[in-house]
Amino acid sequence: MKVNGQARRTIWPEPDGVSVGIIDQTRLPHAFATLRLTTLAEAAHAIRAMQVRGAPLIGATAAHGLWLALRADPSDAGLHHARTTLLATRPTAVNLRWALDRALAHLLPLPPTGRAAGARAFAAALCDEDVAINRAIGEAGLPLLRELAARKPAGRPLNILTHCNAGWLATVDWGTATAPIYLAHDAGLPVHVWVDETRPRNQGASLTAWELLNHGVPHTVIVDNAGGHLMQHGEVDVVIVGTDRTTADGDVCNKIGTYLKALAAHDNGVPFYVAVPSPSIDWTIRDGVREIPIEERAAGEITRLTGRQDDGQMATITITPEGSAAANPGFDVTPARLVTGLITERGVAPATAAGLRRLFPESPIAP
Ligand code: MRU
Fold it and tell me: Domains of the chain (ranges plus CATH)?
């Protein structure tokens, strides 16, 4: 996507040949700043500190982190150490394990002298693949949006609600949930997006809103608790969210609060779609509630807020009483029965084992 008229991805090899560029997402929306990663430790920190975030981008950053690690130590031990370090950064998005396992299968057979170059090429190919997958998700989702828009009275925009940021900032480009939205907007379909702010880190308010504004897509930021009310009043035509891990049976794990949106959508007859790139399907598990590890993050993300003051300076304030405990589970699981459909790069599937398997017959799970 473009930033100030310049086409951008969220991660790129720097022309110096020894470092990786990223957008520092902790600075958005108030500053557009880039960073250079030069070591494994810096790549791991970027994921952990959420300078980069979003399931597909976490995987892409891990692949680049392997390259940076192998520049310093291309031995088997170095490769395994890098994998362990990167895998420990965040537990929920399965794209991390997917990217690392694929990379190791490709790199271990190479002689150590060829591994750094091999890892660099692998990371570049993985990024291109991510862009192609997301674009295909957009094309698969666009007819759904067209169909829903055709049911609206003339001149009324299609109201889409989304949660967190499953936009281009969460991927290498395009985004997953946003890909059909960008394509629809670019095709002249009138769309309007309800953007859940997505406490506690506010990826909706700070990142999705910034993206949509940047691309000229009409949108409105709402508090996380407003979605049910808007649905009751017919103000939401469809919900589209992303996923950090989808099970072989179609359960979907995404940013905390997604489940509540799915419940409200179900109660109000609003279609609830999930944009699912195949690298975020975990074919090894079926029951999302029991089997997906949910990241627990620091209480300070709940008790404190950071933002820009009227004088332009950034400030962090405390909003809870000193002494009150805070719990911060980062993700929740939406059971497949609440999901209208999974928008994948191979088309739209019902959220069932059979539906996923029909689109991905090569998947390692038994029929
Ligand atoms: O904690 P984050 O910001 O990494 O969480 C991101 C999400 O939950 C996204 O919806 C998900 O990764 C899908 S991104 C295409």
Answer: 2-129 (1.20.120.420), 137-359 (3.40.50.10470)
